[in-house]
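Quick one, T. Sequence first:
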Amino acid sequence: MPVKIRLQRHGKKGKPFYWVVAADSRAKRDGKFLEKIGTYNPVSNPAQIELNVDAAVKWLKNGAQPTETARRILSYKGVLLKYHLLGGVAKGALTMEQAEAKFNAWLEEKAGKISSKEEKLAKDKASAKANALAAEKEVNEKRKNAAAAKAVEATEEVADAEVAANEENNETEA
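Structure tokens:
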């Protein structure tokens, strides 16, 4: 039976959520599957991927072929690296301890990259919010100045009208 590691769509329209599954290649996209390996949420930034690495490696060893998107997800989470390292262990090029050490070092490096991206996104969001607040304060200040200028003009007009009325009263009395 030809097995594929592929994505199975769930979620609402416009808000996809995927399960990463091992399924018979002849089964429907959202149909019967052999095992659920993980989940993938592309809506969040960065995308959230939960994956059972050992189960994915087991399916790869049994001959399962990942689809292109699933291959990218497996590569991102290090499944293909672990599969490659276990192939080296099977050939005798590495010991199991060396393979685990390499894989753990790669995982730590990847976690550092992800955390720096999350920090950058949070920093950008905070600076955008601060810029928007500054722009809003500037607009409010302009509005206050314009309103104050109109009020001054209105009081000057009223004062001019009163002066003109007083002069007219004085002329009529005289």
